[in-house]
Write a structure and sequence with these properties.
The chain contains 17 helices and four strands. It has about 425 residues and is mainly alpha-helical. Strands 2-1-3-4 form a four-stranded mixed sheet.
């Protein structure tokens, strides 16, 4: 028997949460997320997808935005929506109110992702930002509009009717639109609820409601510990996010580090020149978790390359790094890389689980001479178990933001979003 009153409990919590509930840890982590997302969004405005598509799609246009566990990209649907709403309001919200709204949107996503064990693994059916991201955007905008508990409940009900996009469009130019639509439709849901539109106030309670997106659906109330004096337990405090160092699917980051470890051993054997290295390589074996949409042996497009274990391995092996430029046509279509791709094979050991919290990558490079060079990555740098230092996070932001902003503008954003924030490494 499914629990009743879940949706209403979410509406009440969204309305009741205040700045007093924000903890220093949550403030710091969310400011880091906002800084990273702003930088990713700025460089994303230079992409073809952004020029052709929905305005809010820039954050995910390069697959460079943060990733959470259970799996989703938490910030990309929230920050563009609250910033757009803030600009449209007759009286701009304060910085603390904007930060609170952002965190409410993140929290709602975190709670929804814990409604089903299916969400713990790399997705197979729906792209998560389109399922929980639109709900988070709706909640954040409802908070910024100071809606009543009933209006917040109806905001979620309205947003649920815009949720869900198939994973089949991953690794295509349409995938960034998922994030853009999640942001826009969540904002729209809050505005409609503000105008008096209503939906099913039990949408989260029902298998025929939000339950259609998950197997083993077990909704739970947003606990009633939202009162004066704090005491609220934030999902972000218990679970940090992963920040990417290059623009590709999160699974690629394990591959890059494992390959670079094997490459270092290969160079130690006197085979450091990339072309000579390729001539000597007979095979490259990647031991990764099973996932069809990121097992792409011959990527034909930039977006397929961002979702290809094989492409990432070859780029790291040839160049000793994977960067923003790795996915440009000139590097992506190199004959030497295409040749190397033909020697890569993928295996999925039974103990390698398709979960961003449990997966690993092991690589074995075999030469024609019979030598073997191995590398393994269990936790890459940038993962929530090994977060980027504040210095490296700011370095990523500055590199991305400087493609659009002046140095003064970049410095100003860094100052605003790093004040009173400590590193949580």
């Amino acid at each position: 028997m499914l629990q009743k009153g879940v949706t209403r409990s979410f509406g009440a919590a969204i309305s009741a949460l205040s700045q007093d509930h924000l903890t220093p840890g949550v403030i710091c982590r969310s400011k880091r997320m906002m800084l990273d997302t702003l930088g990713v969004g700025l460089i994303g405005t230079r992409t073809e997808v952004y020029r052709k598509a929905l305005e809010y799609s820039q954050v995910h246009s390069m697959d460079f935005d943060d990733t959470w566990h259970p799996a989703t990209h938490p910030s990309g649907a929230i920050l563009p929506a609250v910033l757009a709403l803030a600009q449209a309001l007759p009286r701009p919200p304060s910085g603390p109110n904007l930060l609170l709204a952002f965190n409410v949107g993140i929290e709602v996503q975190g709670r929804l992702l814990r409604f089903s064990p299916e969400a713990l693994n790399i997705p197979q059916r729906f792209h998560p930002p389109t399922v929980v991201g639109v709900m988070g955007s709706a909640a954040a905008c409802a908070k910024l509009l100071a809606l009543s508990p009933a209006q917040c409940t109806h905001t979620l009900a309205i947003a649920a009717s815009s949720a869900g996009s198939p994973l089949a469009n991953a690794a295509t130019q349409t995938k960034p639109l998922h994030m853009g639509h999640a942001a826009a439709r969540g904002l729209e849901a809050a505005r409609l609820a503000h105008m008096g539109l209503e939906g099913n106030p039990d949408v989260l309670d029902l298998e025929s409601g939000f339950g259609v997106f998950f197997g083993e659906y077990r909704p739970a109330e947003m606990t009633a510990d939202v009162g004066a004096g704090g005491g609220f337990k934030w999902a972000l405090e218990e679970q940090n996010v992963a920040v990417k160092r290059f623009p590709a699917h999160l699974g690629m980051h394990w591959v890059a580090e494992a390959v670079l470890a094997a490459r270092a051993r290969l160079e130690g054997g006197g085979e450091s020149a990339p072309h000579h290295m390729v001539e000597r390589i007979r095979s490259v074996t990647l031991k990764v978790p099973p996932s069809r949409y990121i097992n792409c042996p011959h990527p034909a497009t930039e977006h397929q390359a961002r979702h290809s274990f094989q492409f990432t391995a070859c780029s790291a092996l040839l160049d000793g790094q994977v960067t923003v430029e790795s996915f440009d046509d000139a590097l992506r279509t190199r004959p030497v890389l295409r040749d190397l791709l033909s020697r890569v094979r993928v295996e999925s050991p039974e103990d390698n689980h398709p979960s961003f919290d449990k997966m690993y990558c092991e690589v074995v490079i075999e030469t024609h001479g019979g030598d073997r060079y191995t590398g393994r990555c269990d936790t890459f740098y940038g993962h929530w178990r090994h977060p980027l230092s504040q210095e490296d996070l700011e370095r990523k932001f500055r590199a991305n933001a400087s493609t659009v902003l002046s140095s003064a503008g970049t410095d100003s954003l860094v100052d605003v979003l790093t004040s009173e924030c400590i590193s949580l490494n």
